[in-house]
Amino acid sequence: MSQTTAQTTGHVMGYRLRQKLAKYGAITAINFQNQLAYIWDTLNRSLFIIFIMFIFAQLWQAVYATRTAPEIAGLTLPGIIWYLLVAEMMELGKFRHDLKISEEVKDGSIAYTLVRPYHYLAYHFFNGLGETIVRMALVFGLGLPVVLYYAGRPDLELWQLPPILLVVLGAMLIDFCVLSTIGLLAFFTEDTASFRMIYQKFVFVIGGLMFPIDFLPDWLQWIARLLPFHLTTYAPARLFVDFSWTQFNHFLLLQLVWLGILGTILWVQYRSAARRLAVNGG
Amino acid sequence: MTVIEIDNLQKEFEIKQKAPGLRGSVQAIFRPVKRRVMAVSGISFALDPGEMLAFIGPNGAGKSTTIKMLTGILFPTSGSATVLGFNPWRERRRMAYQIGSVFGQKPQLWYHLPAADTFQLFARIYELEETPFRRRLAFLIEAFQIEDLLQIPVRKLSLGQRMKCEIAASLLHGPRVIFLDEPTIGLDVVAKQQIREAIRTLNAEENTTIFLTSHDAGDIESLCKRVIIINHGRLIFDDRTSVLKRQYLRRKVIDVRFGEALNGPFHLPGVQTLKQGTYGVKLAFDTEELSVDQVIQQIMSGRAFNDINIQDPPLEEIIREIYQE
User: Fold this and answer.
1) Contact call for A115 and B125, based on CB within 8 A
2) DSSP states of A255-281
3) Which of A272, B91, B180, B229 makes an SS bond possible with B237, Cβ 3.0 to 4.6 Å?
4) B52-56 and B209-213: which strand pairing?
5) How far does the CA of residue B54 sit from the closest CA of chain A (Å)?
6) Model pTM?
7) Do B75 and A275 count as a contact with CB atoms less than 8 A apart?
């Protein structure tokens, strides 16, 4: 009898799980559809990548030409060009969770998004995911011809993609935690844009967006590796051009640790925001 | 069983104040001046299943604040409330499956996508099975007459068309209570009528409880049997719509058109002449002082008239009268 109960429980749990997956899957899908609905706008915004990659390739060619050694901090010229494409893909593919949440708070539409049967934060992550997938694919696809021309094929095996994608997911989650925390500040302060600016500048310099953090002076590199910014950009890009299981384990572990910390901060912030929620507008 | 029960509900906001100008801005940083505002100060009432309640009051009276507490997005300062047996702010997510809300001034449909896509999304969010969802959708399409609108991107719909889709979206999961916050704001007469008709159908067929706030007297008169009026966060009226009309509806306005031209000014004792033309007059009187019968007899005496029209003042006027007291 207990076996049947267990089976039934298992059955019900499986059913509940499928429903939850369908729910959050649909939330991702609708923003995916939304991006496709005006794909030309998204495409126009992403065209920028062609110019950046062209300029970067020229710039680094010039830098490497002055050197006798083929590598700088373990990266070859093709390596760094591929690195920058992946780093740019991570940055340009980002969803502006901060903007979305603070807008909801300001225009009061949170009155809708908060009273539906899903977890508010999970809703925002999966909603952003739908847009990020489209934008990342576009940035990568548009930058690809330039990179192939200057750097040739990447030094990458197919089996390395799943672990890299896992780190990409970790990067998105960390970014989500930081940006959502910033977005929820809208409950306490009028303008949250400045906080996002600061975060972005950190990602630019010590997160590995402008150049790999290996190029930084030792002391700064030490600080950069201590902070979470490099896990959103540097980690997936570096892994893409120079995969090793040691690196992978290192990044994934660090991501998990930081997700624990940033996730807790976000959670506390969310609880206190919900407590003092004052929906604007009438 | 009651559907909504509110007991001495209060909500106090803290508002930061800033004196005008740069000096005020600097002062506000170091010594913020906070003012406490009672948005809702101790209201109590209960609602039975299938009741249609008009919850009205001027801007800033605390209507929306009350709705937000009942839907669980605002914590009250004190007091208690239950909606369908749930504590709204503690059991918000479980309650969410059974309540629906429409905010007339806030869009929920995805702007660039057809409404059908948002409907699909909501079906997943509310975990609706395919067959009941289809059946429900067919019912709502019929009730709101939105068959031809569902495949068009929302941005291309007119306001009236969009609102019908917005409301239908909030009803997909078959909520037992619906909170409608200004659902007909800015709509033309036809769209308003269609929406009222659909809400009436829903209430008649599914015994859905309706909690409506509106500035539109027509919405209230044509939908709700019961009216609650709040002002400055306090409940000032809670009774049947007809009682409201009887108490504050003592003034009647009569329009008369005569068969022949009037000679000289028209005057009846106790009756105010609002307007006089060659063939017609517009009169007003208090039913406490004169009966309708008496007034009509006086008008009829010795004159032939083509048309007569007796009107109640619009609800807006009644509301204004209560506020003035």
Assistant:
1) no
2) HHHHHHHHHHHHHHHHHHHHHT-----
3) B229
4) parallel
5) 17
6) 0.84
7) yes
